[in-house]
Amino acid sequence: xxxxxxxxxxxxxxxxxxxxxxxxxxxxxxxxxxxxxxxxxxxxxxxxxxxxxxxxxxxxxxxxxxxxxxxxxxxxxxxxxxxxxxxxxxxxxxxxxxxxxxxxxxxxxxxxxxxxxxxxxxxxxxxxxxxxxxxxxxxxxxxxxxxxxxxxxxxxxxxxxxxxxxxxxxxxxxxxxxxxxxxxxxxxxxxxxxxxxxxxxxxxxxxxxxxxxxxxxxxxxxxxxxxxxxxxxxxxxxxxxxxxxxxx
Length: 248
Ligand code: PGA
Fold this sequence. Notes:
This protein is of the alpha/beta class. The protein has a single domain, classed as Alpha-Beta Barrel (TIM Barrel). Helices cover 45% and strands 15% of the residues. It has eleven helices and eight strands. Strand 2, helix 2 and strand 3 (56-60) form a beta-alpha-beta unit. The protein is globular, with a radius of gyration of 17 Å. The mean pLDDT is 97. Bound molecules: 2-phosphoglycolic acid (PGA).
């Protein structure tokens, strides 16, 4: 059976005090459940200290495509490993749209993550315009192809894909379970044309306004294997309920 994984994406939120309270609440409540939190770089040490030895993993929200050197302000895969990261989000739509990350750069970051032994959580998804113009599948296929072209389909055996329709992120507008399932099935089907085994084993998360109230119906879809959770991952009860819904 393929692995279910819920990951919190804290984005640029948190403080030492707020994080300590959040981690102290979710850690015992999720004992025995595999889940992860992807936190801002400065808090990696805090999360490592708080979660070491638990069933929870942690990671970052971005990394440099470069291994090391004169790249002011960047953070390398090796640095993330130093802090015990398992995961790193690559190609989040906010990075693509606000920071100009191209498909090619996202693919390079994915490669850098895997080269270091980190598991990339590769985000794909269409904007509202693209959905309304009927090109959702083309957009998602293009984003996947950029990575498959550079890293090969077999690399997906050591990655997680997150389908996040941009119009559903932080808007309160969740994709319906049917809408999400349709794109998840498309993603798995597309990968299956290249490697059926990799497609079958691939964890595909849904992200975009997931909350405790809608998690169960989303997680019940056959091709939805967990979630990438923004706003609701900052609220202990919400995050715990979502992780439990996925684990069922
Ligand atoms: P949201 O964000 O849950 O706040 O919609 C999800 C994400 O951007 O990963």
